[in-house]
User: Which sequence fits this backbone?
């Protein structure tokens, strides 16, 4: 049985292959780290935006609670009630028209 002669690979070719592998691994590592940092920054921005939205919603609800009539003022008026107060009704109309 005769075996085929082993072909010698150039040292320059071996160095080129190993260099390409090292460069590819380095690029992949750096690129993955960059993508991870960008995703983390987007997550932080989204969390900050969510918190701002919650604060704005809380401010709106607080403002609504301050502008609503006092608990003693009825939201509906019964004109047939003998204790009907026309002044309260007029004040209510003025406050709702603004």
Assistant:
């Amino acid at each position: 049985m005769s075996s085929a002669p082993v072909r010698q690979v150039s040292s320059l070719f071996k160095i080129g292959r190993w260099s390409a592998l090292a460069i590819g691994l380095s690029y992949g590592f750096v690129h993955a780290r960059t993508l991870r940092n960008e995703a983390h920054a987007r997550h932080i921005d989204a969390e900050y935006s969510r918190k701002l939205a919650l604060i704005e919603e809380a401010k709106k609800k607080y403002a609504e609670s301050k502008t609503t009539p006092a608990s003693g003022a009825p939201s509906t008026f019964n004109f047939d009630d003998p204790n009907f107060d026309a002044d309260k009704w007029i004040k209510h109309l003025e406050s709702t028209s603004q």
